[in-house]
Amino acid sequence: MKRAVDPEVRLLQAVADPTRLAILRQLSVEGPVCACDFTACCDVAQPTVSHHLRVLREAGWVDAERRGTWVFYAIRPEAAERFHALAGGIVPGAARRAAELGGAATAPHRDRA
Amino acid sequence: MKRAVDPEVRLLQAVADPTRLAILRQLSVEGPVCACDFTACCDVAQPTVSHHLRVLREAGWVDAERRGTWVFYAIRPEAAERFHALAGGIVPGAARRAAELGGAATAPHRDRA
DNA sequence: CGCATATATCGATACTTGTCAATATAGAAG
DNA sequence: CTTCTATATTGACAAGTATCGATATATGCG
Fold first, then answer.
1. Each residue of A58-107: pLDDT tens digit?
2. Which structural domain, as residue segments, surrounds residue B42?
3. Is residue A2 part of a domain?
4. Would you say the C-beta of A54 is within 7 Å of strand C?
5. String of b and e for B12-42 (b: at least 16 CB within 10 Å)?
6. Which one, A24, A85, B39, B101, has the greatest CB density within 10 A?
């Protein structure tokens, strides 16, 4: 499908999963979290957690840091910024203002007609 | 998998697709757009556009309004607000501040240890 | 070294999804 | 009513992916 080539889409796809959203939210609240602590929050097996963390890592969402036996994960500030910017770009736009109709928004693809 | 039950996850899943992101961006810029105009922007067949518009509709992202032969789509302001709020909830958190270590963030799941 | 714990990888499987061709529905116009 | 255009639905298929069990790797400890 090659749908995940665009980095912004990859960022969105990574967060568009209940388990990964839960992980990111926990990281938002608690800061760096040990990988072993996600098994509890998400009710999934350990390999599944590892898989989701890899997806988040490869999407640029998180950084991993080894501390002895554990691995701590943390949200990358750049990722959060990119996400916020992306969200800010999605707005109702001229949407509601044109609800009055009668304007230019009434005729579709007039470049071809 | 029952992954799409949470409305917020549904909102994210709906936007986490290149075609649908393109649609939402076009709607953000131009306001209400005729469904016939998405075929050009996204380089997909008409049934595919219709499918994506349905996904966006069912996720609460857009409203459809019939105007004669055409159907105009527009972003729902509530959806944009929900998306912005959701994005604002994902932050680096205590992440970077704890990079100094030595604090409570060093010991994982101590409730069990 | 050997043992224990934490994390990652592999392999298999079931489910989801994006896509299009064909067809159906809806409205406008003759 | 017939025809034309726009949109939606159906059916089928390919590709992606979330999940887990089994296993591998890594680190710390004795």
1. 999 999 999 999 999 999 999 999 999 999 999 997 644 444 444 444 44
2. 1-79
3. yes
4. yes
5. bbbbbbbbbbbbbbbbbebbbbbbebbeeeb
6. A24
